[in-house]
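Example (one chain per record):
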Amino acid sequence: MTTGAWADHWTRRARAKGWRSRAVYKLRELDRRDRLFHRGGRIVDLGAAPGGWSQYAARKVAPGGRVVAVDIEPMEPLKGVEVLQADIADPAVIADLRRALDGPADAVLSDLAPKLSGNRDRDQAASMELADMALEAALGLLRPGGVFVTKLFQGAGFEEFVAKARASLRKARLRTPAASRKASRETYLVGRT
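Predicted structure:
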């Protein structure tokens, strides 16, 4: 099976099931392995557009849960999700998230990725900068025992980020879901405070 056909399988499957993106299958696998959600949970989804992760999280924390999705890009409304169009690089956004959650987060999810420039070194540096911002946001928002999930790309800065996350979190594991493209350097760090 070629990479394109393989990717189409996940995309077609997501569309058929009513999910906003194929990325939902990555989060679902991480959830099954690491039990990321519970009913009534408070979830922050960074880099949320188009909303597949928020959609999945909202279903997992219902009833009584709260999901706040943040993205610099506009995102169509989703049932059970509060959408903030904002840049997490702005320190005021963390305060906005605290208000929206009305308490500490149970999970901070980040599927943030930079707009690709085509320059692999520049794109890798931008990706690691986003991971750093997501970790800082998580440390400021999570309750003790809360979950942090972030997308990473292996390359320059990867090992340093993983070491920093392991020093900042009680637990941190690397996971590569089956729905990640085989040719991709993508992996996910799953940690707990």
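Caption: Residues 120-141 form the longest helix (22 residues).
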